[in-house]
Specification:
The chain is an alpha+beta fold. It is built from 5 helices and 6 strands; from the N terminus they run βββααββαααβ. It starts with 8 loop residues before the first strand and ends in a 5-residue tail after the last strand.
C-alpha cells in the first residue's frame, strides 16, 4: 500500500492583516498538486497579490503584518524555511507588468494549454 500523495502547496486557514491593521484575505485553505498552477484573479484591491505573496512565502519574509495559519511548499514551512529555498519551489507572474506580452492571451487559451489549476474564491 502506498502513502497518499501530498500537495506541493498546502495552506491551512491562512489569513493576513496588514501592518496598518487593514484586513487582508479571509481564511483560505488551498491545495495545489505537483505540476498544477494557481491563478489568482479578481478586481483591484481584492487581495490577489497578497494571497500569492502568502502562498509563495514572500509573506512573512519580506512583508510584515499578522499572518495566521500555515503554508507548506514541498514540505517546507514558509515561516521557517529560508526565502531562497522557497523561491526555488514557487513563483508568480504579474500579468499587469507583462500586459503587452500576455495581454492577448485569454484565460480560455491558458486553460486549453494546461497552464493553470483554478482556485475559485467567493467574496
Amino acid at each position: 500500500m502506498t502513502s497518499p500523495a501530498w500537495p506541493s502547496l498546502l495552506a491551512d486557514r491562512v489569513a493576513y492583516r496588514y501592518p496598518q491593521n487593514n484586513p487582508g484575505p479571509a481564511p483560505l485553505s488551498p491545495a495545489v498538486g505537483s505540476g498544477e498552477r494557481l491563478l489568482s484573479s479578481g478586481p483591484s484591491g481584492c487581495c490577489k497579490s497578497t494571497l500569492v505573496r502568502i502562498l509563495t512565502g514572500l509573506i512573512p519574509h519580506l512583508h510584515h503584518g499578522t499572518l495566521e495559519g500555515t503554508v507548506w511548499l514541498d514540505g517546507l514551512s514558509t515561516r521557517d524555511a529560508p526565502l531562497w529555498q522557497l523561491v526555488e519551489r514557487a513563483g508568480y507572474i504579474v500579468f499587469g507588468a507583462l500586459g503587452g506580452l500576455l495581454g492577448a492571451l485569454t484565460l480560455a487559451a491558458l486553460r486549453r494549454a494546461g497552464a493553470f489549476a483554478y482556485l475559485a474564491e467567493q467574496r
